[in-house]
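fold-stage: in
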Amino acid sequence: MTDKEQTYAASGVDIRMEEDTIKSLTKKMTFKREGFGAPLTEIGHYAGLIDFGEFAIAMTTDGVGSKVLIANEMGKWNTVGIDCIAMNVNDLLAIGAEPVAFVDYLALEKHKPGFAAEIGEGLSKGAEISRMSIVGGETATLPDIIKGFDLAGTCIGFVKKENVLTGEKIKEGDVIIGLKSTGVHSNGYSLVRKIIKESPYEYQDYCPYNPKKTIGDELLTPTAIYMEVLDVIKKYEVHGLAHITGSGLLKLHRITKLGFDFTDPMEPPAIFKFLQEQGKVSDLEMYKTFNMGMGFVIIVPEDVAQYVVGMTGGKIVGKIVKSGIKVKDLVID
């Protein structure tokens, strides 16, 4: 165990600097198509929307990130394709769109027998869960750029314009329902890897809290895909949706300027406590980096909250307030 408190920034990922980079990048993207195919949202929400007549076409793009390095350490690549699809599909769901098609991008240092088949296995499973087709992709061999491999993709979905959920309907008093994560998902792995590297553990060691599972296998648990959200928005009034990914609860600023008071948060899976103890990570840093057991959020009026809980297996974790983000007495922002 390290004697020094670990942070996401110290592991090489500074969320504030990342936000500055994104602002600098998007500031130069000024041209916008008009009429059919025109953008319906500004850059910065979970998904981009374009005008397609009665419908809006939704697009997302994302990758697996440094989780692939743990896959390399374990020699196990058949789950990271699920992560790749999940990270894209969940962002589509967060705006109310249904996924229909996906294309992948696999960049390699070199080719090795059996590797691509395992990647394809995960992509196929993720597409099946998401009820969509993989319609193409690109593979690039880049030994001067890539060390190992990188996996990313782009997803397309659709939603009727009147059903788009951007968070504008969210109001004080609305109920926050959390949906369980399957673990760390696909964010914060620069910090995860730094913690494990400076701990007495290896990825091949068994978890001290679960002697039947290695730390590596636990960390490779694929990201949950929250397709049940589509069923909820078809049946009940929903005011907002959020996919909890990198920067943890800070992601909630994407959907509203109002605040979130998590009075009864989800119980984080044991892997989070293990990482926190090994890295001496503060509670604040954990909630600003990881999903902490809650991978998706549904915001609804109070009168339908219990019905949505019953439909999803989720949990009422708090309410919408005037400002700020709090988890019990911990002020996140």
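fold-stage: in (second)
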Amino acid sequence: MTKSKLRWGIIGCAGIAVRSVIPGIAQSERGEVTAIASRDETKAKETAEKLGIPKAYGSYEALLADGDIDAVYIPLPNNMHKEWTIRAAEAGKHVLCEKPFSMDAAEAAEMVEACAKHGVKLAEAFMYRHHPRYKRIKEIIASGEIGTIRGIHGTFTFNNSANTTNFRNNQAMGGGALYDIGVYPISAARLLLDAEPEAATVHAFFSPEHGGVDMMASGLLEFGGGVALTFDCAMWAAGRNTLEVLGTEGRIELPSAFVSAPNAPSVFYVTVKGNRREETIDPLNQYSLQADDFAATVLDGAPSLFGEDDPTLGMRVLDACLESARTRSRIVIS
């Protein structure tokens, strides 16, 4: 008989896990959090008690040895994603890995290969892609209502400059705006265009005060047919997270494209030949939707929503963006 619930273990007590992912799994239809681990056992126990998690472990290894766990969520610093994804796969656990998936495309390919070898499912935690508004936007694009797509513009910025000790300011740990949030507009363009970019050009501000990471980056990704994504991302700027899809006959605007309040309606706007309408989707928790979609792949054998090679392809684009920013040149994506 098919299991009705996917039993989750959380590897680490990161803020994204505590604030969003664990509550999202708890509110999902087909998931339950069974255990959480930290290298600080006291922290694991305190987090477990706060969030009503039955088990707490003082090591990641101990959690992976728990036979009551089907899948793990990995919100560790970026440079630890590869090691713990592979170790989880070797322990027979399915893996939902926080974005950015890895440090580079080579690591991503190793992670994908390891999970395939051990017969476990693997996905990157881009929660926004699971919200039905993106399916609706793709329907509008496919209908031809806004005409032929000419370009996409995305933004994701916030100001965390005062927190100079944050791991996001550590190059060796995969710090920087491109790794942390630039991946969102990049993945959105790939999703909406159903295509991979051919070249990247990125200009960035590398801050000596923040470990030399990119605190702001502005980029251009070239897709086929003359279509482009223009985007900016920042960890030292006023906050925005928006997306605009521009067509020959109209445009689609998302004022909260990636992060939105889980209990608020999702609103976006469609303008065609000067007539603007609002489309609204009832409140949904996109972290819960992500957990349920992953449960469907594990428990029901449903196909991956975004393709088994999606994480590697995404990292290939990010590699090009980082190389372009560092060398101040246009990088062709092979």
